[in-house]
Amino acid sequence: MRLSWGASVAALAASASAASLADVCTVSNVRSALPSNGTLLGIDLIPSAVTAAAVYNASAGMGSTETYTYCNVTVTYTHTGKDDSVVIKYAFPSPSDFKKRFYVAGGGGFSLSSDATGGLEYGAVGGATSAGYDAFDQSYDEVVLYGNGTINWDATYMFAYQALGEMTKIGKAITPKFYGMSSASKIYTYYEGCSDGGREGMSQVQRYGEEYDGAITGAPAFRFGQQQVHHVFPSEVEQTLDYYPPPCELAKIVNATIAACDPLDGRTDGVISRTDLCKLNFNLSSIVGEKYYCAAETSTSLGFGFSKRAEGSTTSYQPAQSGKVTAMGVKVAQTIYDGLHNSKGERAYLSWQIGSELSDAETTWNNNTRKWELSIPSTGGEYVTKFVQLLNIHNLSDLNNVTYDTLVDWMNTGMVRYMDSLQTTLPDLTPFQSSGGKLLHYHGESDPSIPAASSVHYWQAVRSVMYPHLSSQASLEKLADWYQFYLVPGAAHCGTNSLQPGPYPEDNMQTMINWVENGVKPSRLNATVSSGTYKGETQMLCQWPTRPHWSSNSSFECVNDKASIDSWTYSFPAFKIPVY
Ligand SMILES: *[C@@H]1O[C@H](CO)[C@@H](O)[C@H](O)[C@H]1NC(C)=O
Ligand SMILES: *[C@@H]1O[C@H](CO)[C@@H](O)[C@H](O)[C@H]1NC(C)=O
Ligand SMILES: *[C@@H]1O[C@H](CO)[C@@H](O)[C@H](O)[C@H]1NC(C)=O
Ligand SMILES: *[C@@H]1O[C@H](CO)[C@@H](O)[C@H](O)[C@H]1NC(C)=O
Ligand SMILES: *[C@@H]1O[C@H](CO)[C@@H](O)[C@H](O)[C@H]1NC(C)=O
Ligand SMILES: *[C@@H]1O[C@H](CO)[C@@H](O)[C@H](O)[C@H]1NC(C)=O
Ligand SMILES: *[C@@H]1O[C@H](CO)[C@@H](O)[C@H](O)[C@H]1NC(C)=O
Ligand SMILES: *[C@@H]1O[C@H](CO)[C@@H](O)[C@H](O)[C@H]1NC(C)=O
Ligand SMILES: *[C@@H]1O[C@H](CO)[C@@H](O)[C@H](O)[C@H]1NC(C)=O
Ligand SMILES: *[C@@H]1O[C@H](CO)[C@@H](O)[C@H](O)[C@H]1NC(C)=O
Ligand SMILES: *[C@@H]1O[C@H](CO)[C@@H](O)[C@H](O)[C@H]1NC(C)=O
C-alpha cells in the first residue's frame, strides 16, 4: 500500500518515492516529533534521552519464521514537577509498511508487556513502558510496598492504568510527525490483551477511552479485590470442610462432569458448550463411587504469571493415587463451584463454571506425614499478604483462624482500597463509546483461573449503568453497536483447554480492524477447533447473551434461553456497596 506523503517527508526523502526506514529512523527526526512541554499536560519529554536505531530482519520470537524490520526508539519523560523517569520503547514500522495504526499489547500476571513489536504485523507502531518502576525488569508486585504498611501508590496507579494511557498518548503524538504526516492525521489505535492484559485493556477503555478506536480484552483479571482473594477460596473450602482431596479425585470429578454434560448442548464432542445447562441439570453427587487412578509423578513447575507457584521453579512429587470418588470430594467441588458466601449465607462472589478444572484446589503431598495437605496458590496468597495485610512476604503460609467471613473482609478491603486503581470495573464507558470506540470482550467458558461469569457480570453492569431507561431489547441492540461479549465454549484461561477440544478465536485483530476501519460490525466471533474429532472446524461463536445449541453434528443455532442467562446472573449482598 502506498501512502500519500506530507510535505516534510517529501523533504526528507531523497526522491519523490516513499521515505526509507533509514531516512526517518534518526534521533533528530524523533526529537523533532516529540510533543513540546505543556502540550500533554503533566508529561515533560526529555529530548536529550531519545535513542533511535533501525533493526533489520530481527526474528519475531521463538519458533517463528517471521522477521521484522523497524525503528527501535526509546523516549524518556518525567511527570511535571516530579523528579521521576519513565522510559518508553516504541517500534515504528518502515514507512512502506506503516498503515496508520498504533497497537498496544497487554501483559499478564503482575507484568505489563515489555515487547513493543506486537503491532508490526498489522503495520502498526507499538510501545512498551517502564512505568516509572523499571517494569521491563521488575514486576509490579515486587515494588508494591516500600516497606511493611506503606503502599507505593505511584507504581500502583502506573500499573493500574496510567502508564499505558500515557504511552499511548505520547505514541500517538509522535507517530504522524515521525512519518511526516499532518499532526491531525487519524491514527487507528488498538489494544489487545488477555488475563491481566485483559484487565489492562479494560483500564484503558475506562480511563483513556477517547484514545482507543478498538480494544480486544480476553478474560480480564478485573474486579481485582474479589478476583485475587477468590484464588484462596478453594483452600479455605478444604480447610473448612476438613477434607483435602487427592488431586486425582478432583480431576476425576471434572472429567466425569465433562463426560456427563458434553451432550447437553446437542453435540457429543468432548466440549461443554453450555455450562449453564450443566449447572441447571447435572448433579455432581452422581459421580460418587466412580473409580479414579493417576500414576505417580514428579513434576517441575517453571512458575510464571498466574501459575500456582509463581516464585521460581519447584519440583513436586505425587504418589500413585487410586480410589473412588467420595461424597466429601464432591462436596468440596460443589462448594467451590457455588462460590464464596459469608456466614449469614449472603453471596460474596461467583465462581468458575461447573466442569472447569479445579487447579486452585490442588493439594500437596507431604511425604513425611503421607497425607494430602493444603497448598495455597501464590496468586491469591501473595495478594493477601502484600495488598491486603501490607506485609512484604510472598505468600500466605497457612489459613489459621481464617473463615469465609475473613475472605469476605479481605475482598472488601481490597475493593475499597484499590477502588480507583486496580479494581478496574468502572461501568460508565461514555467517553469510549461516544468517541466511537469498539470493544470486543471474550472469555473461555471453562476458565479455571478467572471465572467466565466475572466477565458476564461486568457486561451486565455496563448495560444497566449506560442504558438504565431502555427496554431490554433496545439496550441490547445499542450496546452491541460498540461492545460485544463472547463466551468461548470449553476454553480455559486465555487459551484452549487440554480437557475439552473446543474452538478458540485466532483472528480477533482482523475482526476489529474490519469493524473500526471498514465499518463491518461483527455479529458472531470467528473461532477454530484445534484438536479432537472436529479439528479444523470453524465455529462462528454466539454473541452473548445468546447461547449455542447444536441441531446436528455440523451446525448450531444461537438461542435465547432465559433460565440459562439467569444462571449467569449474580448479586453480591455480602458487600454494602454495589459491585460492578
Ligand atoms: C521539558 O521538560 C523536561 C523536564 O523538566 C526537560 O528536561 C526538557 O528539556 C524540557 N523540554 C524542552 C524541549 O525544553
Ligand atoms: C533483510 O532481508 C531482506 C529480505 O530477505 C534482504 O533483502 C535484506 O538485505 C536484509 N537486510 C539486512 C540489513 O540484512
Ligand atoms: C533498542 O534500543 C535500546 C536503547 O538503545 C536498546 O537498549 C535495545 O537493546 C534496542 N533493542 C533492539 C531490539 O535493538
Ligand atoms: C482426565 O482426562 C484427561 C484428558 O482427557 C486425562 O489425561 C486424565 O488422565 C483424566 N484424569 C482422570 C483422573 O481421570
Ligand atoms: C443432588 O443429589 C443429592 C443426592 O441424591 C441430593 O441430596 C441433592 O439435593 C441433589 N442436589 C440438587 C441440587 O438437586
Ligand atoms: C517418600 O517416602 C518414601 C517412603 O517413606 C520414600 O521411599 C520415597 O523416596 C520418598 N519420596 C520422595 C520423593 O521423597
Ligand atoms: C515485614 O513483616 C514481616 C511479617 O511480620 C516480617 O517477617 C518482615 O521482616 C518485615 N519486613 C520489614 C522490612 O520490616
Ligand atoms: C513462601 O514464601 C517464602 C518466602 O517468603 C518461601 O520461603 C516459601 O518457600 C514460600 N512457600 C511456598 C509454598 O511458596
Ligand atoms: C486464633 O484465634 C484464637 C482465638 O480467637 C487465638 O487465641 C489464637 O491466638 C489465634 N491464632 C492465630 C494463629 O492467630
Ligand atoms: C477465521 O479465522 C481464521 C484464522 O484463525 C481465518 O483463516 C479465516 O479466514 C477466518 N474466517 C472468517 C470467516 O473470518
Ligand atoms: C454425531 O456424532 C456422534 C458422536 O461422534 C455419533 O455417535 C452420532 O452418530 C453422530 N450423529 C450423526 C447424525 O451423524
Automatic annotation (TrEMBL):
This is Carboxylic ester hydrolase. Residues 1-18 form the signal peptide. Keywords: Calcium, Disulfide bond, Hydrolase, Metal-binding, Serine esterase, Signal. Its EC number is 3.1.1.-. PANTHER family: CARBOXYLIC ESTER HYDROLASE, FERULOYL ESTERASE B-RELATED. The keyword Transferase does not apply. It is an enzyme of class 3 (hydrolase). GO terms for molecular function: feruloyl esterase activity; metal ion binding. It comes from Penicillium arizonense. Belongs to the tannase family. One of its GO terms (biological process) is monocarboxylic acid biosynthetic process.
